[in-house]
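Hi L.,

As promised, COQ9 family protein:
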Amino acid sequence: MTMPYEDVKEQLLDAALGHVPFDGWSETCFRAAIADTGLDDALARAVCPRGAVDLALAFHARGDAAMLERLRSEDLGDMRFRDKIAAAVRFRLEAVEDKEAVRRGATLFSLPTHAADGAKAVWETCDLIWTALGDTSDDVNWYTKRASLSAVYSATLLYWLGDQTSDHQATWEFLDRRIDGVMQFEKVKAQVNANPLLKPFLAVPNWLAGQIRAPSRSGSDLPGSLSPRK
C-alpha cells in the first residue's frame, strides 16, 4: 500500500525536529530525518524536492493548523475585534513547542534565496487569521489588512524569540502596543473618509482601491477557517 505524500512529509518533519536544534533546517538535518524514518531516499526527495526547506514550511503550516484549531475551540464572542486579532497571533506563537525550531527557521528564511518563501508563509498566516475572524473585504483593504498584520506578526515573532519573561508576558504587551498602532491607523483612515472636507482628497485613491479585488476563493480553499469569505 502506497503511503500518501502528506503522511511521508509528516514523518520526515517529526524526525527532522529532533535534529533542527543542532543542524538547522539543512541538508544534514534532512538526511538524518530520512535515516531515522527508514524511508526510501528517492521517495523522500520526491515529497520534499527542496529538502529541509520544504520541511521548514511544513512546520510553519502545522503551526497555522494548530492556531486555527484553537481559534475554533476558544470562545472569543465577547472580545473586541482588536483583541481577537491579538489572541490569534498569541495562539499562533503558543502553537510552537520548540522555539529553537522557529529560530532556525527565521535564520533560514532570512537568506536571500529563501526570503520569498518566508514572506509568503507569514502572509498566509495573516490571511488565515483575517479569514477565520470573518473578514469579507474584497478591495484594497484585503491587502492592507494582511500587510499590516504581517508587519505586526513578524515584529512580535522576533520579540518573542528573545523574550525571557515569565509566560512571555513582555511579548504579549509588545503585541498589544503593535495592534493598537494598527487600529489607530484604521481609525484615522475612517475619520478622513467620513469628513466631508477631507473626503474629496481621497477620491482618486478610493477609485484606484475600487479597482482592486482580493483573490477569489471558495470555502474549500480555506483549511480550518471559521468564517470563509463570502
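The domain at 50-221 is CATH 1.10.357 (Tetracycline Repressor; domain 2).

Thanks again for sending the construct details.

K.
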